[in-house]
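We were asked to recover a plausible sequence for a given structure. The inputs and outputs are reproduced exactly as logged, with field labels preserved.

PROBLEM: sequence recovery
POSITIONS: 290
GIVEN STRUCTURE:
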């Protein structure tokens, strides 16, 4: 009897062409722009562009775009701040797209330039740290110089509802600042382990002052092992955003990863959930009004 059941099962699999194995995930590709020059900032940096699976085969399809700070940490292990500890962003996107848990997207990794990172990633000059305050210039580079090139060279959906910005640590602080200042450009934000502490928590006052007509969709997180102050700051920021009208699971998601520290490895672990929230598949996007 068992042999007969096995024979019937094999026959049905052949007829229906349903082999008992997992479908192989299709992979996206990486493009590189070496030495992208900014007249605004007066420096050069490398840009890495992830194109989703099927991009080359679908000439009529356009895609939302996620701009990510600290781009050297995203895709290639040898280029990460700690070699080997990259975010595996391409693999995360490939899996989510293949499983239809996220809509296909383009991801633009913007390298930091090392010595100028702190100045470019902070919205104000912090006298206690003798630096900072060039985030608005970085925003001009991104909006006036880089975004037009990406929109011209790739099949993007350039509008605010399809343009996202993300980063971690100071990159998270930068993301929220630019997202609030340019809510007409960036409609989705990934604010990961943000450096709320910068300049006496000035970002909290910036949230309180926000009166924009457009309210970006925000992912905010923090690791439980990033220190008591870091966790407390993240909760203050969470509460400030809620007071300004951001709604849980509608246009806002707050997550605490209890075992996570302040590292590329921790952010890599959360990257799939971030992409899934920022770029939900069309049926969920319509349900949440995003």
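RECOVERED SEQUENCE:
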């Amino acid at each position: 009897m068992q042999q007969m059941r096995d024979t019937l099962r094999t026959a049905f699999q052949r007829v229906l062409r349903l082999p008992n194995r997992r479908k192989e995930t299709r992979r996206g590709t990486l493009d590189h722009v070496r030495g992208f020059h900014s007249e605004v900032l007066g420096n050069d940096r490398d840009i890495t562009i992830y194109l989703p699976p099927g991009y080359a085969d679908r000439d009529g399809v356009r895609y939302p775009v996620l701009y990510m700070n600290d781009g050297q940490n995203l895709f290639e292990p040898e280029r990460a701040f700690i070699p080997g500890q990259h975010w595996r962003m391409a693999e995360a996107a490939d899996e989510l797209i293949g499983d239809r848990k996220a809509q296909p997207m383009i991801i633009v990794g913007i390298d930091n330039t090392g010595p100028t990172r702190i100045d470019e990633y902070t919205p104000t000059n912090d006298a206690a740290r003798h630096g900072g305050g060039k985030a608005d210039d970085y925003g001009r580079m991104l909006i006036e110089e880089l975004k037009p090139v990406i929109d011209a060279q790739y099949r993007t959906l350039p509008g605010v509802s399809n343009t996202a910005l993300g980063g971690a640590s100071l990159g998270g602080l930068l993301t929220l600042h630019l997202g609030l200042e340019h809510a007409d450009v960036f409609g989705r934000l990934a604010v990961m382990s943000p450096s709320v502490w910068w300049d006496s928590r000035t970002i909290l006052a910036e949230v309180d002052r926000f009166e924009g007509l457009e309210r970006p969709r925000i992912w905010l997180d923090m690791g439980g092992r990033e220190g008591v102050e870091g966790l407390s700051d993240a909760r203050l920021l969470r509460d400030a955003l809620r007071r300004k009208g951001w709604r849980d699971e509608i246009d806002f998601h707050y997550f605490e990863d209890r075992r996570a520290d302040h590292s590329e490895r921790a952010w890599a672990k959360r990257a799939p959930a971030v992409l899934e929230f920022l770029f939900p598949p069309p049926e969920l996007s319509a349900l949440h009004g995003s």
